[in-house]
């Protein structure tokens, strides 16, 4: 029986947490235990109070660490409590985009020993919300960059809907990219010879709030992540 943990990083997500938590609680994994932990990244809204009042399991970070630090805190919790699979159930700008009904399919390749990390991709079947045109171009760019540096085509490298096995939990508890971790963590995983697989999922448009990546941050995002991926590739070549 595998122990599965859904890690939900949250920053100012008071309007979404109750609905998401109920959806996650409704997930039934046959022969596996399924727990949920909210990582409250020092929110300035009522995220902490919402969790406390509704009995939602939460870790309240003392300062804002950003998405990478919040996710890594979840991995550290998963490692300390000996979970077999860590599932990133909600990205900080995901706000209900990720459908919990896909969790069983997401963890199946890990349960079957086929993969170390599984990524839910909206671009395999191209159904559901496909993001804006500019973001699709950026995602396509990272797909090509990662294919050139790793030899594997990842169709949705910015997807935060992921599952990792115990080996990856151990690695990510030790090191996890900080600012925009999704593409960087793929390069890191491939450099360390972990097996990555994608499955087709459908995602939804946001219902509340705003994305953490604004147009003003886009140039920084593209430059910073590209440089990090190239540097990680050079580390592999220098070994």
Report on the architecture of this protein.
The chain has 239 residues and is of the alpha/beta class. It is built from 8 helices and 7 strands, in the order E-H-E-H-E-H-E-H-E-H-E-H-H-E-H. A 7-stranded mixed beta sheet has the order 3-2-1-4-6-5-7, with helices on both faces. The protein is globular, with a radius of gyration of 17 Å.
List keywords for this structure.
alpha/beta, 7-stranded mixed beta sheet, 8 helices, 239 residues
Would you kindly provide a brief summary of this structure?
The protein is α/β, with parallel strands linked by helices. The chain has helices at residues 17-25, 47-53, 66-80, 103-111, 133-150, 166-174, 181-191, 215-238; strands at 3-10, 33-40, 58-60, 85-88, 117-121, 162-165, 196-200. It has a seven-stranded mixed sheet with strand order 3-2-1-4-6-5-7, sandwiched between helices.
């Amino acid at each position: 029986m595998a122990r599965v943990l859904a890690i939900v990083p949250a920053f100012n997500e008071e309007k979404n947490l109750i609905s998401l938590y109920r959806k996650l609680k409704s997930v039934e994994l046959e022969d596996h235990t399924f727990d949920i932990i909210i990582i409250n990244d020092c929110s300035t809204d009522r995220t902490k109070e919402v969790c406390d009042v509704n009995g939602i399991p939460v870790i309240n970070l003392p300062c804002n660490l950003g998405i990478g630090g919040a996710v890594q805190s979840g991995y550290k919790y998963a490692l300390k409590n000996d979970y077999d699979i860590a599932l990133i159930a909600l990205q900080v700008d995901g706000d209900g985009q990720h459908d919990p009904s896909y969790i069983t399919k997401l963890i199946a390749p890990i349960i079957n020993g086929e993969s170390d990390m599984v990524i839910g991709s909206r671009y395999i079947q191209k159904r559901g919300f496909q993001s804006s045109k500019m973001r699709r171009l950026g995602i396509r760019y990272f797909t090509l960059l990662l294919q050139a540096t790793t030899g594997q085509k990842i169709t949705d490298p910015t997807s935060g809907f992921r599952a990792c096995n115990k080996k990856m939990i151990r690695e990510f508890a030790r090191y996890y990219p900080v600012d925009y971790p999704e593409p960087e963590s793929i390069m890191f995983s491939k450099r360390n010879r972990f097996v990555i697989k994608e499955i087709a999922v459908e995602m939804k448009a946001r219902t509340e709030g705003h994305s953490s990546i604004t147009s003003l941050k886009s140039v920084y995002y593209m430059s910073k992540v590209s440089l990090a991926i190239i540097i990680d590739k050079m580390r592999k070549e220098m070994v």
